[in-house]
Amino acid sequence: LQFTEEKLGQAEKTELDAHFENLLARADCTKNWTEKILRQTEVLLQPNPSARVEEFLYEKLDRKVPSRVTNGELLAQYMTEAASDFGPGTPYGKTLIQVGETQRRLGAAEREFIRSASINFLTPLRNFLEGDWRTISKERRILQNRRLDLDACKARLKKAKAAEAKAAVTP
After folding, report:
1. Per its UniProt record, what InterPro entries does this chain match (predicted)?
2. What DSSP state is assigned to residue 62?
3. Contacts of 46 (CB under 8 A, 6+ apart)
4. C-alpha pair distances (Å), 87 with each of 44, 101, 102, 118
5. Are 104 and 81 spatial neighbours (Cβ–Cβ below 8 Å)?
6. What is the mean pLDDT of residues 79-97?
7. Rounded Cα distance, 52 and 122, in Å
8. Could you give the percent of the chain with pLDDT greater than 90?
9. CB-based contacts of 37: which residues, under 8 Å, 6+ apart?
10. Which CATH architecture has domain 18-145?
11. pLDDT computed for residue 7 by the predictor
């Protein structure tokens, strides 16, 4: 009732401390930017949307995400197979073996980068959103409910005093 009356402008609302309001605004800003950075980093690390959905499902089911071959590793595999077909003794075969080995190392480095970024960068962001932010939201709801209770009590006290003053005036 108090919340509805405040929204309709029929009841007074106790304002929170300006510093506290600033902290709440900063917390909201932090949450919004953290979500955006988390999503965009996930897109950078795994550009394929269906693979991201699959990884998300594995994560929610508490299962290990199967290891994927990176594009560099796949290219290295094709180059190595092509070198075998052309013959490792031919100039083209030698070149394919060398470039394929380099691509394999690049693919392995990419895989390590993705793993490291996920553990060292994405995990803390998720921990903030799933842990700290939930606590902040819960405490914010509790504070809002307490403020509404306080304002409702103030309104009842004001009505009681007005009724008492009216009763004192009229004999």
Report:
1. AH/BAR_dom_sf, BAR_dom, Endophilin_SH3RF
2. T
3. 52, 55, 114
4. 37, 16, 18, 40
5. no
6. 94
7. 14
8. 56
9. 125
10. Up-down Bundle (1.20)
11. 65
